[in-house]
Structure to design on (355 residues):
């Protein structure tokens, strides 16, 4: 049997994981997840399940009616029809500081609270739309105000310094250099690819050998939702990838990982966590005050592309944003700078030399 593509493997894992999560949730939740399946990814549905479980746990912990129940599986839709806006506002307050099943404190900041309330809104909207709930308090409750955070990205000189460090490893510890000798070619190809294409870390680790097309300078990736697209790369990426591909041909992958492009030292497909760790390792040397992640490398690429082209729609397309407004939000400061620079570009009257 042929090896299943990475994105299909992850989809299968998420689907099976969701089934396990649903075993401990109210039975009507199955209908919700079946109903939203066509519009959502399997990863999103798993995130929704965790968010909803937090809400049901809150009801059992904090609401006297639900506290009498043996488990959250005893919650019914008629019960949820009795929930008010005040209950949901209390839930938002609860989310700031709560305790999980292991009695460990969990702190949610603005974005974490917003995501959990957004999940709850989708949940209530589904059952209200299908006329199984008479009330929809989630539609009325206001989402928390988000304070925009500064977008962290690498400066041009920091990009060069980062790649130099990956290539040479001069500032690594003795222990790190021992690993660096084994992974230098792979790490350089991987980081050059992230910085030179702006692909997501999940798209990067999901690459197979056959996804690389040197003839057309492109890689085939699977975006969120499984959409297949080709992203093109430049000469620097091509050179780094070619060097790694030459080494990759001599590696013997573990069973089931024969097609994977980037391999770990265990000869298995490299994981998202491993890529996050290696980015952190090198970036900490180059720019210790910036918390650089693979997503920050994606922002770095998007910034460079926008500064070079001035085309926000091109940036949105290359980065795989389904809504250009998402891109505009991320690069608003750059857009404003370009607008200011345009103020003297158009001349209304020719200037003539004085006679």
């Amino acid at each position: 049997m042929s090896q299943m593509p990475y994105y299909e493997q992850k989809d299968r894992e998420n689907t099976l994981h969701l089934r396990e999560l649903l075993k401990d949730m109210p039975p009507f939740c199955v209908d919700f997840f079946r109903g939203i399946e066509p519009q959502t990814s399997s990863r999103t549905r798993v995130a929704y399940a965790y968010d909803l479980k937090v809400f049901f746990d809150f009801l059992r912990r904090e609401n006297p009616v639900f506290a009498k129940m043996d488990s959250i599986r005893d919650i019914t839709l008629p019960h949820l029809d009795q929930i008010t806006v005040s209950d949901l506002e209390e839930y938002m307050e609860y989310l700031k500081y709560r305790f999980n099943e292991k009695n460990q404190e969990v702190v949610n900041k603005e974005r974490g609270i917003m995501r959990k309330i957004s999940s709850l809104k989708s949940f209530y909207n589904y059952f209200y739309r299908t006329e199984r709930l008479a009330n929809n308090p989630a539609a009325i409750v206001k989402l928390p105000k988000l304070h925009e955070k500064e977008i962290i990205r690498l400066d041009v000189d920091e990009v060069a310094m980062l790649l130099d460090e990956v290539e040479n490893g001069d500032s690594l510890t003795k222990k790190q250099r021992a690993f660096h000798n084994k992974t230098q070619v792979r790490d350089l190809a991987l980081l050059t690819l992230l910085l030179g294409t702006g692909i997501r870390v999940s798209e990067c680790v999901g690459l197979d050998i056959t996804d690389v097309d040197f003839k057309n300078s492109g890689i085939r990736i699977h975006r969120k939702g499984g959409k297949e697209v080709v992203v093109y790369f430049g000469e620097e990426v091509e050179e780094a990838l070619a060097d790694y591909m030459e080494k990759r041909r001599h590696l013997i992958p573990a069973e089931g990982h024969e097609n994977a492009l980037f391999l770990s030292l265990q000869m298995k497909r490299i994981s998202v966590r491993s890529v996050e760790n290696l980015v952190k390792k090198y970036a900490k040397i180059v720019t210790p005050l910036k918390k650089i992640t693979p997503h920050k490398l994606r922002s770095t690429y998007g910034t460079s592309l926008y500064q070079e082209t001035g085309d926000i729609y091109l940036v949105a397309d290359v980065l795989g944003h389904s809504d250009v407004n998402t891109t505009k939000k991320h690069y608003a400061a750059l857009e404003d700078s370009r607008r200011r620079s345009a103020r003297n570009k158009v001349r209304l009257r020719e200037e003539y030399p004085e006679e």
